[in-house]
Amino acid sequence: MFKNLNIIPRWVVFLIDLLGCYFAFIFAHFVKNNLSFQGIDLHTLSGNILILLFVQALVFVAFKTYDGIIRYTGFQDALKVGYSVVAGTALLFILSLFGTLLRNRLSHPIYFSAVILIINLLFTILFLVGYRLLVKIFFSYLQYHKLDRKNVVIYGAGDAGFATKRVLEHDYSSNVNVAAFIDDDFRKGGKVVDGVRIYHSKDLEEICTASKVDEIIIADLTVTAAKRNEVVDFCLDNNITVLNVPPIDTWINGQFSSRQLRTIEIENLLERDAIQLSNEELGSQLKGRRILVTGAAGSIGSEIVKQLLRYQPQLIVLCDQAETPLHQLELDLAHIKTPTRLISFLCDITNEVRMKELFKRYQPEYVYHAAAYKHVPMMEISAAEAVMNNTMGTKILADLSLQYTVKRFVFVSTDKAVNPTNIMGSSKRLAEVYIQYLHHISFANQADFSTRFIITRFGNVLGTNGSVVGIFKDQIEKGGPVTITHPEITRFFMTIPEACQLVLEAGSMGKGGEIFVFDMGKSVSIVDLANKMIRLYGLIPGKDIEIRFTGLRPGEKLYEELWTGSENLLATHHEKIMIASSVKPDSENILQSFDTLISLAKNGVNEMLLVAKMKELVPEFVSNNSVFEKLDN
């Protein structure tokens, strides 16, 4: 019933405040006169009351103390009331001072005793703040004694955790009772905040059992990925709903509402701890520079662009062949305040004439090459397109970078280029080989050693188009089944921002010719991933949602690799970035071999002949579950 109580009009709050001032002033005289009304001049008192109410009314209007909703009174509201009462008292003191100076000229001089004003100040604040708090306590009492409330534990006894408690208390539709705070800091254990006790995280199971907890809200914005996974696993095992407080940068005007609380998603569980970047070095390299990003409208390219904007380059050329996504990127970037000039350049990287026009017109100093065809089964039936885009397109860009003395060329490769079993991975490995060839020939001729060619290699990225996580979400929301190719298949995962941060970092530290390999963490069982996602939806795998195995797709591996057996891993100053030292490519006839390969791709006459040439150039390319396996025999 109390949810439907109307919020009282502001003018009513205004009148109640004035009534509080009236009683406070009378009570101040009563206290000043030793708790007696004898000896008080009622005529003077009534005149002073009118003056006080007039002055305080003006101050209330100026401070808008009546604007707040009483049942949601907070610290800021109490401060506003206090400031207004102090301001009103100060004005009365000034009036009294002038009244004393002009008492010989006034028939009825204005005079307020300083003692009365001080006592009145204290009582007025007490009355006005007090009745607000009583109303708030009343509504909290009604909320607390509802019978169908959910018991909630807030994980994180910090600013975000306390803000979460206030949000839940103020939102009567949330229908919750905050049973406890949980925190990893031993020093906070046993303390009480707003009537709620703080417990250490080791007591989580005991608290949840004793209080019959229905939900846990993770409000610790600095919690490690391992700890978050531990809490989520505990919740899933005990049928407890787990919610997540959004990052601070998504709070509206620095605050969030209960509607922004979200269930934990699998992306949150696959994230790793934040990466520390050499921002000063990146800033000194990139500030005021001209940069080209290919595949700029894609998942990786667009994130690279957004991260580059932090370092205030002079301009960024956004190159992509997809018109609609490129236009959408323009709209997204329009909301970012930046001095950087952004230029959209609609072009296919295989169009050598247009790419040469781009380099000639904008003279890029840094190139981040993220454009690629990446879907393994599709490239298995489109070998010519894979070679044209992934290999020839990279060759065109690398050649132009050398010709136009680009400072750094950073190539975004893939773990599928390691011991490739498919066309897509082989086409990317060919691109790696050509980039390393260019580095070695330019290094041999010191006069031409102006462009540093750098290769970055990593695995699956969450949130990209075609990511398995997105496919599973769609299948679960449609009621299943969730389809998995093989029960033993595993994959490495990292988030888009993490991958792009590492690309920028590797690009800044590269001396030329390196293949930078990223620490992808532990490989994830896709079956375990599907089971956890289904459980996060509150469903039971195998009962509510079927898991169906469909068999490996053409070219697909069971396990991904990040480096070959012939490559040795070397550490760098960044713990998440390593260098795979590879064998120097055989430069003899390499140009002729690539020309032959590209000619076969352009003609598109005999796909078997094209793939055979790819296998000749990449001896470790052994097809898997593909029509091209016969070439390996």
Keywords:
single chain, 633 residues, alpha/beta, Rossmann fold, 3 domains, 7-stranded mixed β-sheet, 21 helices, 46% helix, elongated
Query: What is the number of independent domains?
Result: 3
C-alpha-based Rg, rounded:
35 Å
Q: Could you state the oligomeric state of the chains shown? A: single chain
**Which CATH class of the largest domain?**
Alpha Beta
Strand order of the largest sheet: 10-9-8-11-12-13-18-22-21
Distance between the termini: 79 Å
Report the β-strand fraction as a percent range.
5-15%
| CATH architecture label of the largest domain | 3-Layer(aba) Sandwich
Tally of extended strands?
A: 22
What is the overall shape?
elongated
CATH topology of the largest domain: Rossmann fold
| Low-confidence blocks of residues | none
**Annotated CATH homologous superfamily of the largest domain:** NAD(P)-binding Rossmann-like Domain
Sketch the major β-sheet.
Answer: 9 strands, mixed
Class from secondary-structure proportions:
alpha/beta
Q: What is the number of helical segments per DSSP (H or I, 4+ residues)?
A: 21
What would the average pLDDT be, to the nearest integer? 82
Portion of residues within helices: 40-55%
